[in-house]
Structure formats: structure tokens, C-alpha cells
Design a protein that fits this description.
This protein is of the alpha/beta class. The protein has 9 helices and 11 strands. The strands form 3 sheets. Strands 1-4-3-2 form a 4-stranded mixed sheet. A 4-stranded mixed sheet has the order 5-8-7-6. A 3-stranded parallel sheet has the order 10-9-11, sandwiched between helices. β6 and β7 form a beta hairpin. α3 packs across α4. It is elongated and about 85 Å long.
Length: 261
Amino acid sequence: MVKPAKNTICLWYDRDAEDAARFYAKTFPDSSVGAVHTAPGDFPSGKKGQVLTVDFVVLGIPCVGLNGGPAFKHTEAFSFQVSTKDQAETDRYWNAIVGNGGKESACGWCKDKWGVNWQITPRVLTEAMAAGGAEAKRAFDAMMDMRKIDVAKIEAAAAMAGRSLEGFTRAHLTFITVGKDYESAERVWVERLSKRYAQDFGPLARKYGVVGTPEQCAEQIGRFAQAGCGYFVMNAICDPEDERAQIEAIASEVIPLAPKG
């Protein structure tokens, strides 16, 4: 007879404990399904002979699944936190859970089809958080914008901790519209960007846009250069049929007027 574990996690399911246990055993290493026990008599959520409890192991943790009916639901107050070594392992577990009727949440959390919550957590994130200071802050800030954890972005954020910006060249992504006058160019700029991003870009034109005649556009680029921008990525904003003419105007009329060096 197998000696029972001193401490076992009991998870409440509606009526699918066995299905959940077999999914976990298929998905995670060091996981298995043990004894399946049927009810010796009728119970509030089922009948005699139906599956009542299922013994299983998830990542080495002994559990029992109880088919207790719909009275109680899982919440984020309990979750399994799974440590992963790289992006491939993170993707494998995340995609298995979400792709099997689960749901994405935030910051590495997801929920399986039975409502059990999982944290799929790359070691690079836990190590950065444990390091504390600027490394933890940068990794934390990067994580807050994620659903599934992006290992490369966490690594990049952690690596930047404590680094000086000296030696880096500042760049500016520029949405530019060249026209015969400021008003007509601004109108095209606002209409095209508002349609592209489904929001009103009107208030942003004078603050962030490079808009107007070639001379006005060159002057606006000069202001960004004075603020420390070393180079510009120019995105021509115009009607599709005017794109070639816009690019030619930027190259031949704006850039020659823009400040050098």
C-alpha cells in the first residue's frame, strides 16, 4: 500500500476532475493520474457509482480532485506557479492551457478550462525580482505590460539596470506630411492617423507631428534635433496614391533644409 502524503492539495471541480487530472498529466512533467474513486452512494452533486475523487500528481505535487458540483468556483486566490527555463518551455505550457479552452490573464497568469489558475513564470523573471533594486524595477515594469511572459524583453529590461544612457543615440519616429501649406498638410495628417489608429489625432498634430511646407517640416525637425535626437525614422502620412510624391518631397525638399550633424 502506498503511504499517503502528509499534505495533499484538494481541488474542487464541478464534475470533470478526471479529465482535468489527465490533462495535467499529459501537459506537465513529473505528473500522473492515480486512483479514481467512485461514490459508494448518492451525494449532493451526483449519484452512486459516479467518479467522486481522483488522485493525481502535478509537477511532483500530490493532489486530489473532488467532483463537488457547481457550488464553489476557483479564483486567483489559489494558483500553481510553474517555473520555466526558457521561452520554449513557457510557450509550451501557456499554449497548452490556453489552447485547451483556457483564458489568458496578465503578468504570466492564465486560467485553464476548469477555472484553475496558473502562473507560467520564467526563471529569468523570478531571478530579476529577487535581485532587487533597479533590476527588479525594470523587470517588473516590463512584466506589467505582458500577458504571457516574453523572456527576451525581461532579459533586456534587467540588463539595462544601472546602465548610463551615455553613448546611446536618441532616435525619433516621425510621422510627417509635406504639403503646400500647414493647414492642408495637418488635415491629411490628422485624417490618416485617426483612421489608422481609430482615435482622434487632432490634438497631437502640433505637438508631435512634422507637418507643413518643406521649410516648416525642416524647422520642426530642427527642434527635435536640439532636444538631443541624433536620427529620425520618417513615416510618410498621406493618401496611398500620394506616397511616392511624399517620399520624394521629403528626400529632395525637407532633408536638405534640415539641420546637419
